[in-house]
Design brief:
The protein has about 450 residues and is an alpha+beta fold. The protein contains 12 helices and 12 strands. The chain has a 5-stranded antiparallel sheet with strand order 8-7-6-5-9, with helices on both faces. Homoheptamer.
Amino acid sequence: MRIAVLLICLLLPLSAQSQTVSQPTGTITIDDSATQDAAMANRIRGILGELEGFDDITVTVSSGIVTLRGNTLDMPTAQRLAELVGRVEGVVAIENEVTETTDVVQRLNPAVERFLIRARQMIAFLPLAMIALSLFLLIILLGFALARRKQPWERLAPNAFIADIYRQIVRLVFVIGGLVAALDILNATALLSGILGAAGIVGLAIGFAVKDTVENFIASIMLSIRQPFRPNDTVEIEGDTGKVIRLTSRATILLSFDGNQIRIPNSTVFKSRIVNFSRNAERRFTFSLGVAPEADLAHAQALALSTLEALPFVLDDPHASAWIESVDDSSVTMGMAAWINQNETSIVLARSEAIRLVQAAYDTAAIGAQAPAYRLLHEGGLDPSQLQPTKSAISDPEGPDMQAPPAREVDAVEDEQLSRIVDQERAGEQIDLLRTNAEQE
């Protein structure tokens, strides 16, 4: 039982009561005067009476030993009391028997007093705060009204997107200016550095969190300034080919030749290789055809050139060309190229017609590539007289007339239809950063 009581006493909070003996530094005099003790006690009581929080402290002095009793709000205050008393001349030792009060009223009274003092200060400060707030709002309203105007921002900016960025910058400048003016009236400009520092840290954290979004935003600005393509241009971006519909603040929108919309993020467009097929009206198409290995290759080359140059949609300048591309076991591959005006001619149809007519010319001249011949070995042997050779009607110069029909119309009708679809898409009121009259990059 005694051990349990001892443990309970040891677990009691030591801060509830503190009795310490302080030993001030200094020489102890041999004089023992009651008058001196009374003078020290009065001096200590006078000091404590001028300080807040020591109203319940009693002081007794005997032979230079000061005994302090009473209650304080917390133990650090009691320790400061001992340090203060130790500075009084003549104090030999200090017995600090001051305890921490647990009275609810005494502990709440200082908090209530501080609240009332701050409330009175706030009421006295309210007119000045209203003036600062009014000036802050006035400057912000002025900045927003200036940013709302179309001019001079649309005249200074190359497009509407950049003009909106200018407006956002103006709003931000006026907000910061209003904040500085309001804090200056309140004599609190020191807070501005802290606010800006915190805003910078928060902005840096947000920037890392939305790095891709920031990258895409910057790419949109650069593309809107550079204008690498125009509406209705046929471009290839990151393997996607189509006609440009519009450039928005987030993506570049294409219309594929299958009629599908393709949205490519501007960050991808800015970093990718862009092939613009519409920047130059002249465009070359190429194809390959095989001829018989025993044919006159110079004659095959000349025949291909004459056939290409006779096509009505092939341009005279640059000239068409033909060359020997490769030699295989059963054929010789000829490469051919010709130029067209893609604004008037469909490159797909032009290439198709060129292949058809050159192949027909080769077949008519009996120099077209034949199917490869294979040698068959029979185990039991086979009389060669039993093998009957076959004739190819195409390779027989005395066969039926293989004259190919003339070239068909290859106008760029499909491109015109896609252009009409693009114009319909652009007829809406959606934001477009492309300009038809922008300077070429």
